[in-house]
Amino acid sequence: MSVGGAAAGTEVGLGRRLTAEDVERLFEDHHRHLVRLAGLLTGDGDQAQDLVADVFAALLRKPRVAMDDPRAYLRRCVVNRVASAGRRSLRRATIGARIDRPASSSASAEGPVAERDRVGRALMQLPGRQREVIVLRHFEDLSEAQTAALLGVPVGTVKSANARGVAALADLLREDPT
Amino acid sequence: MNDADDARLATLLRDAAARYEPAPDLWARVQQRARRHGRRVQLLAAAAVIAVVATTVVVVTRSHDDGVQLHTDSTTTAPPAGNAVDWSTPLSTFTANDFRIEAAGRTFDGHAPGTVVHNDPGRVDHSMTFEREWDEDGIEMRLYIYFQSDGTDWWSNEIRIRNGSRSDPEWVTFDGDFFRSRLGRAFDGDLDLPSDADTVDDEDGPATMHIAGLHLEAFVAPAECAAPTHPYVLEVIEPSVNVQTEPTTIDDGGSPAVMNNQQATLAFRLRDRRCDPVDDMAGFRFEATPADPAIVRARTRTCTLGVAGGVCEPVTVEGIAPGEATVRIDVHRTNDDAIVASGTTHVSVTP
Question: Pairing relation of β-strands B339-350 and B240-244?
Answer without folding.
Answer: parallel
